[in-house]
Amino acid sequence: ERFVKSGLRETCSALCEEQNKILDKVMKEHIDSQKRTAIWGAGDTAEYLYERLEMEKWNITHIFDGSKMKIGVNFKGSTVENIEILKKCADEIDSLIVMIPSEDEQALNQFLWKLGWRGEIIHIGKYKFYREETW
């Protein structure tokens, strides 16, 4: 809708502004950049998030994904790991940022709990970037 009304340049600019608002809020709420943080999801939005967190000197320890096409691939200098090994890495992580697009965050939490994750979960999946009422 926005693209049809405003064109590509304005739409991309507006989406970047929305992403920045979301990431600013997340970083403000979870201000302890010394926490060992992992990211679940290795897509374009996660890449942008990674760069922002890196600029703020966050301690990013792991990048996870569930896609066989992404596991083992280089992502920003790290190798993407299978989310299924989360429990093995749990003592190296304080908080997990979930970049998986979903409107059912509870289902994602249940999946993570089945994997044995008991730490902090921060949801900022891509679907939030396209909702007008975001943050």
Q: What topology emerges from the helices and strands here?
A:
Layout: H1 2-6, H2 8-29, E1 36-40, H3 44-55, E2 59-65, E3 74-75, E4 78-79, E5 81-82, H4 86-89, E6 95-98, H5 105-114, E7 120-123
Parallel strand pairs: 1-2, 1-6, 2-5, 6-7
Antiparallel strand pairs: 3-4
Q: Would you tell me the structural class of the helices and strands? A: alpha/beta
Low-pLDDT residue spans: 129-135
The run of helices and strands is HHEHEEEEHEHE
Percent of residues in beta strands?
15-25%
In round numbers, the mean pLDDT is 82
Helix content percent band: 25-40%
Tally of individual helices: 5
- Specify the overall morphology: globular
Work out the number of β strands.
Answer: 7
Q: What kind of oligomer do you see?
A: single chain
- Biggest sheet character: 5 strands, parallel
- The radius of gyration over CA amounts to 15 Å
Q: Largest beta sheet: what is the strand line-up? A: 5-2-1-6-7
Distance between the termini: 20 Å
Quick summary of this structure?
By secondary structure, this protein is α/β, with parallel strands linked by helices.
Walk me through the structure.
The protein is α/β, with parallel strands linked by helices. The chain contains five helices and seven strands. It is globular and about 50 Å long.
